Structures are given as C-alpha cells and as structure tokens.
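Researcher: We plan to redesign the surface later, but first we want a full-length starting point. Tokens attached.
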C-alpha cells in the first residue's frame, strides 16, 4: 500500500464517517437516554435484591464491557498482524456491530437486560473494529502526515456522526408531525445508526486494501486446527511483547498517561446522556441537541488541535486539552437542573477538546510503534484504553449509587485528567519515537535489539 496515497487515505477516513453514527446515537446521545427514560421502569430495576436506577445500570455495563474488551483485543491484534488480516477483522467486526446496533430497535419498556446484552455485543464490534482500523494509520502515513491524517479522520467522523444524529434529532423533535411517539422516533434513530454504519463502511472498504504479508505458522503449531493455533499464537505473542514493553519506558509512560486521561474522556462521553436525563432532568430532544453541538464543534476542534500540534508539539497540545477537560468536570458538577443553556455551554467546551485529544493521542501513539506490528500495538492501545475506561464508569456507578446523585460522581472524573496530565509530563516523545526501530518480530516472538530503548 502506498504511503500518503489520496485514495487510500480517503477510504480510511470515511470509516470514521461511518462508525461515528454509533458513537453519537448508540453510545452517546439517544440510546442511553432512551434506556434510562423508557426501557428502565420509573421505579428502577431490581437486580440481586436491590433496586437501581438507569444511569447506574448503564455505567455498570459500560464498565463490564470495557473489561471484556481488555481481555481479548491485544490477542486479536496480534493474530491480525501475523496473518495479514487487519482488513478482514475490520470488516467482520464493523458489520457485526452494525447489525447488533440495528437490532436495538426492537427493545421496548422492560427489556432491561436484553437491551444491555445487545448493546454490549454492539460495543464489542465497535471497539474491536477500531483496533484494526487504527492499525492502518502507520501503514498509510509518514511521520510528517500522521497527525493531520488522524485529525482529518476524526473531523470527518464528527461531521458524519453529527449529521446522522441531526436526522435522528429532527425525527424525535417532530415526532408528532409524522404521527409517531417519541419513543418510536428514538427507536428509528437507533436503527438508522446501524444502517448508516454498515452502508458507509461498505463504501469505505472499497478504497483501501490489506497491508502486510501473512507469515507461516511456526512448526510447533503444526497439526492443530488453524483457529486454535492462531489463538494460542496470539496470546503467546501478546505476552512476549508485553514483557518487552517494560523496557520501553517512555512508550510505557505514555500508555499509562493515556490510560488515565482517556478514562475521564470515555466516562464523560458514555455517562453524559444518562447524567443529563437522570440528574439534570433534561428532555431527550435537549440532550440530542447538545450532542449535535459537541459533534459539529469537534470538527473544528480536531483540526484546530492538529494545527496546534504542528506548531507547538503533539504532547503540548494534549496537555492544554487536559486543563480544559478538568475545567469541564467542575462545570458539569454545578450545572442547574432543567436548564438547557448551561448544558449547551458545557457541550460546546467538550466539542472543542474532544476531537483534539482523541486524534492526537491516536497519531502520537502511532508515531512511536513499529509498523509491522501496528494492529498488535493498537491492540495494546485498546487494552490500556479499555482497562482504564472500565474504572471511570464503575466509579460513577459506585458514587451515584451510594449518594443517590450523579453530581459527586461527575466531579470525581477530574482525578483522571489531573493524573494523566502529571504522567504525560514525564514522557520524552522523541526518545519513544527513536526506540520503535529496536523491535524485531519473528513468528510468535517479539525481540529487542540492544541500544537506546527510550
């Protein structure tokens, strides 16, 4: 695959356009509010002899899903690299996630556990597909273009996801004019997100092809079923790489910093809709409009932070965004109930920094890892992401369940931004980038060449 090929980059960025419908409608604005406001009874849902509210249930399943993904993603990444199957894995998980997203249309009042189960399967498809999608980034770019291409993908994703959410929001806002209930309008919007994801994925996949060359399985796996051999190889190579990773201190410090601050970002994204519905008492239409504000401002935010990174450095741009994220957590705590305008103001601030921190984190990591194992290393990236992303929602569920309010839970998120900021200060980016040439991969083994590991 040619580096910096326009057709390839267009196809790659279009997948951001495709899957962002899931981020905005399924994981973000509409499904969580529909779940807490319609699927879960007003009196709450009894589980293990205790009655819990919708936002606590949602936080718990988001945390559990992150733990599940933490267990499986680096192994799938290693298998994809070894068998040169990044695109095949991407296609399978993308279409699978899109199908489960559309099936959520059939969830109605009282279908609490079934809704959570199907959402969990859709979430697995979304996150797994992103690992293989991200794994293409170092393959199709060069060090001088990786930040801009990553930012362009996120910008296109925010615009596409925002457009799909806008259509759903309009349907919900004018549901009476078309003769349907608000709940039915929300269900149609949820269904359309899955269709959007599937259709534009098909369009995206036409423009880029598989990278890398498949390797022969080592002799010790001979005679075993191919699937079992790949699973065993994937775990073996993942563990071998993890042991070597300890020697690359600056790459490891970055992953720890990312693990911390990403927890705050993901908790904010995953819990904002449920928080707005349960704690602030806002209508679904208001929440949808706030997410639209986030999406369309994030388009400019991703491009702005991309330019900021070009001028001052990627690390420095991320540090600036973390200061703003900390301010957002404090402002969210003080938001008044039932008032849309202050909520919209915080949404605008989130939009400014959301695209920047996601795009720059992805490209910064991509510049520090070996290309021949990009899917495996993005599997690690996903592991650190998912390992972190389960603690924020679980902490939110614990605090909101204990206090009966989401306010102290949302304020607690600031811990992750401050800790991530402090750890990121320790990272020497150039040393980490130099160290990527020290990795050597042979079969199921990861080796390290002597020298400055960074």
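Model: Full-length starting sequence:
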């Amino acid at each position: 695959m040619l580096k910096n090929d326009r057709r390839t980059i267009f196809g790659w960025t279009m997948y951001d356009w495709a899957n962002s419908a899931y981020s905005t409608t399924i994981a973000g604005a509409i499904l969580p509010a529909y779940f807490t406001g319609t699927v879960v009874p007003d009196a709450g849902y009894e589980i293990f002899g205790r009655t819990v509210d919708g936002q606590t249930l949602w936080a718990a399943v988001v945390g559990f899903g992150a733990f599940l993904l933490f267990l499986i993603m680096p192994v799938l990444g290693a298998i994809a690299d070894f068998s040169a199957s990044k695109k095949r894995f991407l296609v399978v998980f993308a279409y699978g996630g899109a199908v489960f997203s559309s099936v959520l249309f059939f969830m109605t009042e009282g279908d609490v556990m079934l809704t959570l189960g199907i959402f969990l399967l859709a979430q697995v498809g979304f996150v797994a597909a992103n690992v293989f999608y991200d794994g293409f980034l170092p393959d199709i770019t060069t060090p001088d273009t990786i930040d801009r291409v990553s930012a362009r993908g996120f910008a296109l994703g925010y615009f596409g996801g925002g457009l799909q959410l806008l259509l759903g929001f309009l349907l919900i806002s004018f549901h009476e004019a078309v003769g349907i209930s608000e709940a039915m309008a929300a269900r149609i919007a949820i269904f359309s997100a899955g269709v959007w994801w599937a259709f534009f994925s098909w369009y995206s996949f036409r423009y880029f092809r598989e990278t890398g060359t498949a390797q022969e399985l080592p002799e010790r796996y001979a005679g075993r079923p191919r699937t079992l051999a790949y699973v065993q190889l994937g775990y073996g190579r993942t563990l071998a790489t993890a042991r070597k990773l300890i020697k690359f201190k600056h790459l490891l410090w970055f992953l720890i910093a990312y693990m911390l601050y990403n927890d705050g970002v993901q908790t904010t994204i995953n819990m904002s809709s449920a928080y707005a519905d349960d704690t602030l008492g806002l209508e679904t239409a208001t929440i949808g409009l706030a997410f639209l504000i986030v999406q369309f401002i994030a388009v400019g935010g991703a491009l702005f932070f991309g330019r900021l990174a070009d001028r001052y450095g990627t690390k420095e741009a991320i540090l600036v965004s973390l200061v703003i994220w900390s301010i957002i957590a404090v402002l969210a705590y003080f938001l008044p109930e039932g008032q849309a305008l202050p909520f919209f103001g915080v949404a605008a601030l989130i939009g400014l920094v959301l695209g920047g921190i996601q795009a720059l984190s992805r490209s910064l990591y991509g510049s520090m890892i070996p290309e021949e194992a990009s899917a495996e290393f993005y599997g690690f990236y996903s592991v650190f992401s998912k390992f972190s992303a389960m603690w924020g929602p679980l902490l939110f569920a614990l605090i909101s369940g204990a206090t009966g309010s989401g306010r102290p839970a949302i304020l607690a998120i600031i811990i992750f931004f401050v800790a991530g900021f402090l750890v990121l200060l320790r990272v020497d980016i150039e040393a980490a980038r130099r160290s990527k040439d020290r990795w050597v991969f042979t079969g199921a083994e990861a080796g390290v060449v002597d020298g400055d590991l960074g």
